[in-house]
Write a structure and sequence with these properties.
The chain has 148 residues and is of the alpha/beta class. The protein is built from six helices and five strands; from the N terminus they run βαβαβαβαβαα. It has one domain: 3-Layer(aba) Sandwich (Rossmann fold), CATH 3.40.50.1970.
Length: 148
């Protein structure tokens, strides 16, 4: 299962392509809205218990300072994929740079600004390294892209 966490409700529309792609793959996911800055205890608890709930990969979406992915990565052994949200201030560059500049030992993968769909695809590819059903879903998806 995939865990999706975003910093605020305003991120939900930009993350809909992520959920739609996971639905298309038939992969279960859990969604949580919690801020690394406003509700850090909630983020800590959610991330620290993610694996116990069956989550194997986490997608974290946030804008501006965008520390959510890094904070989540600090509390979980699961791989974390960050989705920088487009912002009115710097167009999302601020979010992107916040996500890719992680300290050694706390890696976070990162997709493009508002790259929610690619985050879903990458998450399923990660699952596919140990799950033949996910591997076939990704292979079929790639074949369909090639035929389009």
């Amino acid at each position: 299962m995939i865990g999706i966490i975003m910093g605020s409700k305003s991120d939900l529309p930009a993350m809909e392509p992520c959920m739609a792609q996971l639905d298309e793959f038939g992969v279960e996911y859990e969604v949580k809205i919690a801020s690394a800055h406003r509700t850090p205890d909630v983020v800590h608890e959610w991330a620290a218990t993610a694996r116990d709930r069956g989550i194997r990969v986490i997608i974290a979406a946030a804008g501006k300072a965008a520390h959510l992915g890094g904070v989540v990565a600090a509390y979980t052994p699961c791989p974390v994929i960050a989705v920088p949200m487009k912002t009115s201030d710097l167009g999302g560059l601020d979010s992107l740079l916040s996500m890719v500049q992680m300290p050694s030992g706390v890696p976070v993968a990162c997709v493009a600004i508002n790259g929610a769909k690619n985050a879903a695809i990458l998450a399923v590819q990660m699952l596919a390294t140990g799950d033949d059903a996910c591997l076939e879903k990704i292979a079929a998806f790639k074949r369909a892209m090639a035929e389009a």
